[in-house]
């Protein structure tokens, strides 16, 4: 009898130890959540007394758990705690895995560090932080770690539509057994970044993940009338169009608006999509003041160096964010660097506008030179190129407006100048 009781006691102890170990393993297992540090911060052990390491600002970490104002995180081989207020949700950059062999994901950014897994070729991964280092931090499903950045390239996007026959399940990775993270409704437009053995990675404004490729179709092609660059017609009165590129800027654009209001002048602002995303309230102020809004692409890339689908994405994504901010799309377009061809103009349904006076304000950053360029070049029907991201341009504007107003000029939008 004693032997039986002794045996049962040993079994209970073994099971108990196993359960404890399982709990520890589970607690330390990385979640699918990555966050970014908002400031330089120290990582503490579980007692919250001993300092383990110090993380710099903008460091991506794996979130393990959150409770009572503290977040348990993993950074490389270190697991510890930092105040939850020092972390923010991260917006990843999507990258395509392309290499001769499946790249290894490591615990740290050292070539000799422990291997966590492999990335399948042609999959899309989430890149966090800078893409300039030798090793970068990425996540694919629940696999997160460091990979050689040479194995990653920027994917080529393609517009697709969910078939009208059924809704489409979105999964975390390219596997029917992976976690379901959402559903795309019938006929929903998506952007496809890769097509991998029956699986496609798609992204929308609200959802990104893998779907079955056979649930997508190419959208019908709508032929649009090519829009050629517009040459301004001489106005019957003395009219001139002031234009500002690359904003909106939280400080400079505000000052420019005040100066324009002082002279009852209207202007055209060719805005960049990513700046609108950062400062939507400034765009609303520009629009509400009666100025014209133009499309200047999403991140100011030279369009003639891009593929047609990327050009379309640059233009349409900017139109979309402008409309969601002020309720209407841009009424004119200006290509970055003034660089365009038929591939670009064929995708426009608004006037493609360049300029007749280039102040070069971006180059010299001197108010006097900006003023002089306008004074010497101004004539009836002129379109003046300036940038509302430079303080020196805002400083020059008052003298420009005062001088031209004395000469009898009226300040109008580009569309008004062109009679549109």
From TrEMBL:
Domain of life, per lineage: Bacteria
Alphabetically ordered keywords of this record: Carbohydrate metabolism, Glycosidase, Hydrolase, Metal-binding, Polysaccharide degradation, Xylan degradation
Coiled-coil blocks: none
InterPro entries given in the database record: Glyco_hydro/deAcase_b/a-brl, NODB_dom, Polysacc_deacetylase_ArnD, SH3-like_bac-type
Domain NodB homology: 238-412
SUPFAM superfamilies linked to this entry: Glycoside hydrolase/deacetylase (SSF88713)
Single GO MF descriptor: hydrolase activity, acting on glycosyl bonds
Short name of one Pfam family: Polysacc_deac_1
Protein name per the record: Xylanase
One of the protein's GO biological processes: xylan catabolic process
């Amino acid at each position: 009898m004693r032997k039986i009781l002794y045996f049962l006691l040993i079994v209970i102890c073994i099971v108990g130890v196993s359960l404890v170990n399982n709990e520890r393993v589970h607690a330390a297992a990385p979640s699918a959540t990555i966050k970014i540090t908002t400031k330089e911060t120290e990582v503490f052990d579980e007692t919250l007394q001993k300092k383990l390491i110090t993380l710099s600002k903008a460091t991506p970490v794996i979130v393990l758990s959150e409770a009572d104002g503290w977040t348990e995180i993993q950074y490389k081989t270190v697991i510890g705690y930092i105040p939850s207020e020092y972390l923010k949700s991260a917006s990843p950059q999507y990258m395509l895995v392309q290499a001769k062999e499946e790249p290894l994901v490591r615990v740290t950014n050292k070539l000799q560090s422990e291997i966590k897994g492999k990335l399948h070729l042609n999959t899309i991964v989430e890149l966090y932080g800078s893409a300039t280092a030798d090793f970068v931090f990425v996540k694919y499903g629940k696999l997160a770690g460091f990979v050689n950045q040479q194995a990653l390239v920027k994917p080529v996007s393609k517009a697709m539509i969910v078939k009208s026959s059924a809704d489409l399940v979105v999964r975390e990775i390219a596997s029917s057994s992976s976690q379901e993270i959402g559903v795309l409704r019938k006929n929903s437009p998506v952007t496809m970044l890769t097509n991998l053995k029956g699986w496609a990675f798609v992204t929308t404004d609200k959802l990104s993940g893998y779907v079955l490729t056979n649930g997508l179709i190419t959208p019908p092609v709508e032929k649009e009338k090519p829009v050629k660059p517009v040459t301004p017609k001489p106005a019957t009165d003395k009219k001139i169009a002031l234009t500002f590129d690359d904003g909106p800027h939280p400080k400079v654009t505000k000052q420019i608006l005040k100066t324009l209001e002082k002279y009852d002048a209207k202007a055209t602002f060719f805005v960049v999509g990513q700046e609108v995303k950062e400062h939507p309230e400034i765009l609303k102020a520009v629009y509400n003041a009666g100025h014209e809004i133009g499309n200047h692409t999403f991140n100011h890339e030279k369009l003639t160096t891009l593929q047609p689908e990327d050009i379309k994405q640059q233009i349409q994504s900017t139109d979309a964010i402008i409309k969601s901010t002020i309720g209407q799309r841009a009424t004119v377009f200006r290509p970055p660097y003034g660089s365009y061809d038929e591939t670009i103009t064929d995708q426009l349904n608004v006037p493609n506008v360049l300029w007749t006076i280039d102040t070069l304000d971006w180059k010299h950053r001197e108010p006097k030179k900006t003023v002089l360029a306008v004074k010497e070049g101004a004539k009836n029907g002129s379109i003046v190129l300036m940038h509302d991201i430079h303080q020196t341009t805002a400083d020059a504007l008052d003298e420009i407006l005062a001088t031209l107003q004395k000469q009898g000029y009226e300040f109008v939008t580009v569309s008004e100048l062109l009679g549109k």
